[in-house]
Amino acid sequence: MTSFLLTVYVLVWPLVVAGVLAVLCTAFGKEAAEARRQGRDLV
């Protein structure tokens, strides 16, 4: 494996993690807003 491919492999993981975190935070925000609108607890 070349050092370039290894560098790309290492640098891609933070992007994947950031994308997953963004999806989770967006979904949590939507659920919290809907729960607040309906007057019920989130958990």
Write up this protein:
With 43 residues, the protein is mainly α. It is 84% helix and 0% strand. It has 1 helix and no strands. The protein has one helix spanning 3-38. The mean pLDDT is 94.
Question: Helix segment count?
Answer: 1
Order of helices and strands, N to C? H
Structural class: mainly alpha
Unreliable runs:
none
> What does the average pLDDT come to?
94
**Which shape, going by the Cα principal axes?**
rod-shaped
- Main β-sheet description: none
First CA to last CA: what distance? 47 Å
The helical percent reads over 70%
Throw out a few tags for this protein.
43 residues; mainly alpha; rod-shaped
Summarize the entry for a quick read.
The chain has 43 residues and is an all-alpha fold.
In terms of topology, how is this protein built?
Elements: H1 3-38
